[in-house]
């Protein structure tokens, strides 16, 4: 891994840790957090390989007990709690965002709309659907109710997807280093 890519990957992990300490908005058993914007950025800025790696390393740090998750929590119990479905989806969301954007780059078809749509599908819908399944499995909430519960997150998540798209496109224009990751 080139030094530049390694540095960007470590910066993304650090950003995810910092985001853990941004206050959340309680919403039932699952709070509204900004950490998922970090997942969107990891895939969009780092590409599929480094984005996936950054999320895996961050989740490993959480699994060994470091306080890197929302609210400064960590430890294995988080991976089996009401929010487990989100955590399990994070590396795959970054991977799929990165793969799709890399594919769009090769087609020379990356623009605001295609990047936003990619982030929306994998960084919002995939994570929220996985979160619903996690709620269903862990809390025994009926799946339809768990999916309906996710609707409360959609407006904020769409705003986060727009922000992630703007940040990604801005950084990619300024620093060509992020192309063809």
From TrEMBL:
Topology relative to the membrane: Multi-pass membrane protein
Subcellular location(s) of the protein: Cell membrane
Signal peptide: none
InterPro entries: BioY
Gene3D superfamilies to which the protein is assigned, alphabetical: 1.10.1760.20
One of the record's GO molecular function terms: biotin transmembrane transporter activity
Any one Gene Ontology cellular component term annotated for this protein: plasma membrane
Sorted UniProt keywords: Cell membrane, Membrane, Transmembrane, Transmembrane helix, Transport
Any Pfam family hit: BioY
Transmembrane regions listed in the UniProt entry: 55-80, 86-104, 116-137, 149-171
Family membership noted in the UniProt record: Belongs to the BioY family.
Name the UniProt record assigns to this protein: Biotin transporter
Organism annotation: Leuconostoc inhae
